[in-house]
Specification:
Number of strands: 0
Helix content: 55-70%
Radius of gyration: 17 Å
Strand content: under 5%
Oligomer: single chain
Number of domains: 1
Distance between the termini: 18 Å
Shape: flat
Structural class: mainly alpha
Order of helices and strands: HHHH
Length: 82
């Protein structure tokens, strides 16, 4: 974990963890699909972030991960709020 944080501090780049693909043919035929997929994942991320931030207030009781609140706080210091 420290190696990844140091790398981010040095480069400002956080490596991609997941990739979503929409075939070009579909994107050209139905451009709304690309926007809908993006919006769906953006909404899911927001929901998850909201749950984690709320959990920080209540000591992450719903996740059952020890020291999660401190980990989230440390990560936000390095990575920012997003």
């Amino acid at each position: 974990m420290n190696v990844e944080r140091d790398d981010f501090r040095r480069t400002g780049i956080f490596p991609m963890m997941h990739l979503i693909v929409v075939k070009r043919e579909l994107a050209e035929r139905q451009p709304v699909v690309v926007k809908a997929v993006y919006q769906g994942f953006k909404n899911a991320k927001g929901t998850c972030e909201e749950k984690l931030v709320k959990g920080m207030t209540f000591n992450s009781m719903t996740t059952m991960v020890p020291w999660l609140t401190a980990l989230i706080a440390d990560n936000r210091k390095v990575l920012g709020e997003d």
